[in-house]
Hints:
This protein is α+β, with helices and mostly antiparallel strands.
Amino acid sequence: MLSEEERFEPSRTIERNLGMELIRVTEAAALSAGRWMGKGNKEMVDQAAVDAMRHAVDGVDMHGVVVIGEGEKDEAPMLYIGEEIGNGNKPEVDVAVDPVDGTRLLALGLPGALAVIATAERGSMYSAPPGVYYMEKIAVGPAMKNVIDINAPVAVNLDRIARARQSRIDDLTAVILDRPRHQDIIRQVREAGARIRLITDGDVAAAIQAAMEDYRGIDIMLGIGGAPEAVLAAAALKCLGGEIQCKIWPRTEEERARFKADGIDMDKVYRTEDLVSSNDVSFAATGITSGDLLDGVQYFGWGARTSSIMMRSHSGTVRYIQARHKWRKGVVQG
Ligand SMILES: O=P(O)(O)OC[C@H]1O[C@](O)(COP(=O)(O)O)[C@@H](O)[C@@H]1O
């Protein structure tokens, strides 16, 4: 019989704390970037979030290397791919960041902008080849994990989900980014009879909602979105037990030819496991503008309130954390 202490191995305790520290990083990004809501300035939205996230991440107990970040070193002075972050202590981890998923949403004051960070054991996160910006994606929750196939027609995937759920296709809802490139997918979903929720941005949150067992508003996420966002979504889905399948997507015929010449396999299916292979994944996100998944930042004279989600693959625990932040400790509340 194990004693209470013995049940918690040290590595578990470290990882536990890391998750909580990651929340502080996304909270910092959200608190800072939230000031720019609706001001129409995408650059400042991003700058504020990156600055705050970079500052906050320094104190985190980890030796992190940015795998998904703001781009290459010469174009991004902070949180660039390959940058070492954290205080240098163990654990050694890969880090994926998106200081604002939905910069346009935040700049326009629209719902659903999030600050996001994920960590996984060193060497376990996929990084798309240089010049690859988009992936075709399909994401579902744990019960539909072995049901979907990105290579199957949309109607077939919807039919399989409906059967597995013992429901009808017209009970299902697919979430899709509202883009001209999705006209054909949208037509196929409509012809199959499922409902559609079109979103203007933010397919990380959309994938999470599709995968949440206790959130039944969305059954599947479909369509083409950012390659970095695919890895962040995979980190979240690893914690939730869901499944994302992706394929590299060229934007133009020239890009297709270039990828081919570079030996990039556009038929390869990247599953959750290929995007994040570790079983020690932590994921944190804080709402910046209010959306279906999380509330946005609320400011009031002496402080602000944030709403975050934290998940760990090790335990599968999902925590929703509401925090009240005081700008200065001891300030009298109005
Ligand atoms: O806007 P595009 O070029 O269609 O790209 C889609 C990607 O943009 C987003 O909607 C927003 O990403 P950013 O906020 O980083 O611009 C992602 O969630 C999505 O993967």
